[in-house]
Predict the 3D structure of the following.
Amino acid sequence: MPTQTYRRIDLAVAQLDAALRLFLECRAFAAVITLAGAAEEILGKEVGRCGLQIARDRRLDPEPELVPVGSGDFRLVTLNQN
C-alpha cells in the first residue's frame, strides 16, 4: 500500500464535516464533541500561525445600554464588566 500524505487543515475540515453530519443526524454525540474539538484545535493553531486571533480569545467590547437618568429620560452608557 503506497504512503499517502495529508495536510493537517484538510484532516481538520474532514473531522468537522463528520461532526456536523453526526450532529444533524442526532447520532453519536460523544463522537461529535471529540471530532469537533480535534478540528478546533488544529484550525485554531492554523489561525494563530496566520497571525490572526481565534474568536475565543478576542475580547469583546461591552455594548452600550440605555440607562434611566430621570423621569422618562435615558442616557446611552457603556457599563464596565469588572
